[in-house]
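Chapter summary example.
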Amino acid sequence: MHTGGKPYKCIFCPKAFSHSPALNTHQRVHTGGKLCKCSVCDKAFAFISDLKIHQVIHMGEKPYKCPLCSKAFVRSTYLDDHQRTHTGEKPYKCSLCLKAYAQSTHLRKHQRAHSLEKPHTCSVCSKTFDFLSEMKVHQRFHTGERPYKCSVCNNVFVTSSSLVCHKRKHTGEKPYKCSVCSRAFATPFSFKRHQTCHTEVKSVKKKGAKQSPKNTSVERG
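The structure predicted for these 221 residues follows.
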């Protein structure tokens, strides 16, 4: 007989559950328990749903496509974040300084600048980080771990974003296009470096325009 009661209470927060398996799954949020392991790169997750989303990266499947450009994404939430680059929407606002951001993660990172809080410390070099995910990526430089492998040439990488940029060497994809001269680039780093060429030219032109021509007078005899 079901009474509708929730006798299984979380020891970390006020949440309660009808069944003990649900409680055990929930408590992984607090303990960091990650029992769902990827068979390809050994990355582990607290929930099977997160593991399934992660495995799409290895398959190369990106089912969520932007209707305004050619970009595609693994998660619908990534697509939502991307589309704000087209619309300019910034729904996440800081309550302290009113700065606004397109992504909630960027807002959280900004808010820690007010508190100077970096709660995650590397056990090897004591460097501190805003987010646990950032610290885990950093620790790979100590361990030498490179879990992301190119399926074409077998090169391995520390981060998934490095692998994505590397794969463009094989595909020839150049998604970063300059709005000034229409040149296209494979990585955001090379794109930003290129943009400085235009800003430097503008700076020189602006400086030259401010300089008035010298006053020369001709004496007539």
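To summarize the output: The mean pLDDT is 81.
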